Structure formats: C-alpha cells, structure tokens
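Blinded run. Sample ID left blank on purpose so nobody reads anything into the name before looking at the predicted structure. Input follows.
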Amino acid sequence: MLKSGPAKKVSIYVGEDVQYHGHALYAAILDFLFYRGVSGATVVRGIAGFGADHHMQTTRILRLTENLPIKIEFIESVEKVEELMPKLHEMAGSGLIELQDTNVAKAPEAAAKAPAQESITPLRSESKAKLMRIFIGENDKWNDKPLYRALVESMRVNEIAGVTVYQGILGYGANRRIHQQKTLSLSHDRPIMLSVVESEEKLRAYLPILDDMVKQGLVVLSSVDVIKYAHNYRAAEPRKGGQP
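Blinded prediction complete.
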C-alpha cells in the first residue's frame, strides 16, 4: 500500500502496436503492475508523436493504421519501484522509461469494505481425492436425452460434490473417426469431457450407475491433491470434493 512520503513516479513510453507475447505491450505492463500490487496506474494515448526512429505518428483521418505513443504512469514507494524495474526494463524493450523523485502528500484510501459477518480467518485445507474424467460424444443419448446432461443430473442426485462439462472442438476416439465442429453443418458430434473431483469412496459407489449409463466412452480415474480455501470452514466442511 502506497504511503505518504518520498516516492517514485514512473513513466513508460511505448508504441500502441508493440506486442509482448502476443498481446499489446501496454496492456501486458498494466497487468504486470496490477498483479504485483502497485497502488494504481494510468494509461494515456497520444494523438501525435515520434520516437527514437524519428518516424512521425499521428491520428490523421486518412491514415488507416497508426502506432501512436502510449504512456503508462504510476507512483510507488522507492523500494517497490526498485523491485519492479528489472522486469519493466525487459518488457519495455526499445521503449522509454522515466523515473522522477516525488513526494506523496496524501496516499490513496481503499474503498471501505462491508463488515464481515464472522471474524473467521480464511483457512487452507489439504486432502487426497480422485479426479474422474468421462469422455463421450455430444450425440450420445440416455433415455432420449443427451448423455452428458443425464450424467450431470445423476451425479447431483447421488450427491457428487461437483462436475464440469467441457465441449471439445476436435478429437477422435476408439473408432478413429474425427469429431469436430463444422460451421456449415447442422449436426455435430463433438467430443465431450466431464470432470469430477470427489472422494474415492463416493466415486467407487457411483461407478455401477456410470456403467449402466455409458455404453461407449472412456472413464479415467487419477489421484489428486485437493487444496481448498474457505472463509467459513464450517459451511464448507460437508463438501469434501468440488468442481475442478
């Protein structure tokens, strides 16, 4: 948290079109500052300018493409800026970084948070569980309804903690027939994966039901470590598993 007193103002100048790992550089720098706990940062876009290459950039109406100057600016403590500078140097590349000594007369104040209902420290718990993944086709049926939907409903009735359904865009199974999403086709048989994390006891008890419902597909069981964070540990206790 930024405090009143001596600080550094950092200004980073880059081109709007400059990329960093496939994303706009200025957005990547802003994300870096956000996730490294910088108190606040501002991005402003210029309407004209030139850089070290002396190539003029403007917002003239007749130009369809511009690489206008972008400035990212933030103020932080001297220690925090020193911590961030090596990565910012690497990210900025051919851009310009300016450092100025400044003094924070009044530090920003965080918005007041709603009072917590209970003063319980967030707890972190670890346990062992099983990850079950079920691979089927989108067109597979059970009692005239989509199999993946029937499986979700069945797991809910059998008190499985949570399940997530993933829809693939391309794949093939044991018959080596390609399943994919085709834009112009009205019928699809895309691959579907259901993912469940639960105790081994519950999943083993559910397997006979699964055997009856899945006529063609693949079921994989893997051992996993479950790490759970909960503000209300008593409320979270009945849920031994959870959505992956």
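Unblinding after everyone has recorded impressions. The longest strand covers residues 123-137.
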